[in-house]
Amino acid sequence: MKIGLEIHVQLPTKSKMFCSCPTTDAPAPNTHVCPVCLGMPGSRPVLNKQVLVYGIMLAKMLGCKITDTTWFSRKTYFYPDMSKSVQITQYDHPIGEGGVVYLNGKKPIRITRIHLEEDPGKTKRTSDMSSLVDYNRSGIPLAEIVTEPDLATPEEAREFLAQLIADIKHTIDLPENGERSIRCDCNISVGKERCEVKNVTGLKNAETALRYEMIRQIKVLKAGGKIERETRAFDETRGITYGARKKEFEADYGYIDEPDLGIFHIGELARSITIKESPAKMTQRLSAQYGIDGKKAKQLVSTSVDLAQFFERVAEAYGTPNAVKWVCGPVTANWKRFDERNGDIEEVLAVIGKFSDGTITDTECGIELKSVMTGEDVEAAAAGAEDLDKIISAYLDENPQIVSDYGKGNKKAANSAIGFVMKSTGGRYSSSDIVDAVRRIVESRL
């Protein structure tokens, strides 16, 4: 089985791709439109430079080769949501080609190309079988990322999408709100011929659509049938795909160069643009540079890039063991509350510094960190920690084999103590606090 994805990213520009119409949420249908984005006779497109900038940033993030020149083409097809019957896109000279993304830092997923194009409008079906078209979205800039069919399962496709979306959002500061979204066309072939499931949104939906299509194709082939090359739609409510139209071939679109835009020389612009380290690459680097477990590195980065950067500050100032002990423990466990109240990170660093130079004990450091992270006073944090420690200690006194097995390398031996404390305390403590406390006390008894 082979799976390839076409990921469409609405770029966060203030105005549309070829006109000055705003890209913000419109007050009503067909209000953020003009002759250019509607393709009225005599109108001429003018490229928004920021679209090129975002395209180059994503191409660099994907490891693509960026050529010195690029241009646009007209893709000809009729559909009601494309009022001018052509879509301005890139064909034979995209913004970037030949990249690669490593899934979980290991499996290479080849990137065929990334190209820029305008979004069509939206079609809405009504109860009386009529169709209403809203052109507010028409002309909003898109970057389309096309992968090779290197994904092997629907679950792997979902995992790859999650990683890629996190990298995209971080690279171009994609906002969470508004109509901007990331949509995906899912190409899958169980045998020789492939089908494309169009415009799937959401990680769960992508996995569901691919799994349904995988099972459908297998059943057709087992029954002696033949898979027809076609474009299919996904019904989110029923979790099924259904035939929409016969799949077009490239020649059917009649690509021609866009005469109103000309050639863009982007080599110098591309060389001048630097991008932030993506979450996926940061995860790989943290694991390799500091010798920490890949899952631990991923947890740091997925919780917050700022948290991962703080881990590096602590590692450089007080050593990797202290960074792992405190940042991967109580700091991570309370990061959300700390972030919500806009806490001072220098206070957190100072507490770890006091432990590092021997001013405070292990227990005192944990209490002070919780106080700084959550805003609780030290006495309240200490009281809570003391009660938790007593419960854990009493359970370990009754079950000394846990400490013995843990000391022999069986780290899962602590799970029974963790489970007992979670059940007996009835939600009074966070799961992270319990896990950290159990491991701390078990390790202190070795």
How would you summarize the topology of this molecule?
Layout: E1 2-10, H1 35-38, H2 49-61, E2 69-71, E3 73-76, E4 86-89, E5 96-103, E6 107-118, E7 122-125, E8 131-134, E9 141-147, H3 154-172, E10 182-189, E11 195-201, H4 203-222, E12 230-235, E13 240-246, E14 256-257, E15 263-265, H5 267-272, H6 279-290, H7 294-303, H8 305-318, H9 320-333, H10 335-340, H11 345-356, H12 362-374, H13 378-398, H14 401-407, H15 415-425, H16 431-444
Helix pairs in contact: 2-3, 3-4, 6-7, 6-8, 7-8, 8-9, 8-11, 9-16, 11-12, 12-13, 13-15, 13-16, 15-16
Task: Throw out a few tags for this protein.
446 residues; 15 strands; single chain; 8-stranded mixed sheet; 20% strand; 3-stranded antiparallel sheet; alpha+beta
Describe this structure in words.
It is a single chain. By secondary structure, the protein is of the alpha+beta class. The chain is 44% helix and 20% strand. It has 16 helices and 15 strands. It has helices spanning 35-38, 49-61, 154-172, 203-222, 267-272, 279-290, 294-303, 305-318, 320-333, 335-340, 345-356, 362-374, 378-398, 401-407, 415-425, 431-444; strands spanning 2-10, 69-71, 73-76, 86-89, 96-103, 107-118, 122-125, 131-134, 141-147, 182-189, 195-201, 230-235, 240-246, 256-257, 263-265. Strands 5-6-9-1-10-11-12-13 form an eight-stranded mixed β-sheet. Strands 4-3-14 form a three-stranded antiparallel β-sheet, with no helix packed on it. The mean pLDDT is 91.
**Percentage of β-strand residues:** 15-25%
Mean pLDDT: 91
Count of individual helical segments: 16
Q: Strand order across the biggest sheet?
A: 5-6-9-1-10-11-12-13
Alpha-beta classification: alpha+beta
Please provide the count of β strands: 15
**Low-confidence spans: pLDDT under 50, at least 5 residues?**
none
Radius of gyration: 27 Å
Overall shape: it is elongated
